[in-house]
């Protein structure tokens, strides 16, 4: 708690000093050192670590790259104001505001602008390469025991439970990476370590998610016990896991479907200029169509968008259209357009986007009344040339899930080749 209060005090200093100018920092040169850095986000009295690199090209403005296992998130729109760095977080409506305390030390806040109630979380950063403190395990038998597939169960504060698959891999140095899959999507790229006593710690910070896991590998039972998962300002869940190489999730292609009384899927939404676009428009006539239910606030949607962008570039001449329906954090057309335009500038998807509305309070389900429910973002609806539904895929297993992502890619390509043969 003392550390948490200290960090909270630093954030006050950060914003008090954002308008002051410290001429001794040499901000007209390179304000912070290039190299490997360790950041810490203070969530719910816990320290969530993340790693990033600082580099310079020909200017004095740094480029920061956040690292989570194999993921790299490049932040190249940094603004220097007096003695502070203002860092937009990729396409997300969030930013880091960090005061330069020294060339190897920063303090400030992670700010979520698109939350229903925007909030700030204290952040500090120092030059260094560690992620979690503590002695990593060198026990190969422990590494083998933790590596593999796990049936994981989360106990929520409201008494409900949720289940998923944890996929973990430990290196010889005790570095631990992996992800967690649920029917609604995955927890993306997790990274941490396992210690000599079996304590395991994992975290991710990707601009939108703040995920922190801590648990214990019980040597007697071989199970993961005493787990706690923290996220954001208030989410806290207990978890445990049992190793299970044969575990499977419910079929994600059965969760969303056409309701009784409907025989077709359709939509009519404005594009980014406000012009209504419908599935009945001539551009879609006689073509297979992929409808992506999407949001720029959603990192899993970004994973799916990257995949679709590459696939569409190679296949768009085969009689296929992709159209994305964007459901954004605020029920404001201009705001939604601004978020989609920013995403397009960053990711260049090459296919069209419409504004569906907001994702909150089942609003997406209400705009598509022919579906039983929009269960998750993203959701992919694949239609054949007659615009009959071939499949509806809920969620997305991204590249952080390893073999599950490879399996999705194979199945998707087989489905599309069958339609476009």
List keywords for this structure.
421 residues, Lipocalin, Glutaredoxin, 9-stranded antiparallel β-sheet, 6 helices, globular, disordered N terminus
Q: What features would you describe in this structure?
A:
The protein is an alpha+beta fold. It folds into 3 domains: 2-127, Lipocalin (Beta Barrel), CATH 2.40.128; 140-243, Beta Barrel (Lipocalin), CATH 2.40.128.120; 268-420, 3-Layer(aba) Sandwich (Glutaredoxin). Helix content is 18%, strand content 40%. The protein has 6 helices and 25 strands. The protein has helices at residues 2-16, 140-146, 299-315, 333-347, 363-367, 403-420, and strands at residues 35-43, 46-55, 63-68, 71-75, 79-81, 84-88, 94-102, 105-112, 119-127, 148-155, 161-170, 175-182, 185-186, 190-194, 199-205, 210-217, 224-231, 235-243, 268-270, 276-278, 288-294, 320-328, 352-358, 379-383, 389-394. Strands 4-3-2-1-9-8-7-6-5 form a 9-stranded antiparallel sheet, covered by helices on one side. An 8-stranded antiparallel beta barrel has the order 10-11-12-14-15-16-17-18. The protein has a 5-stranded mixed sheet with strand order 23-22-21-24-25. The longest helix has 18 residues, at 403-420.
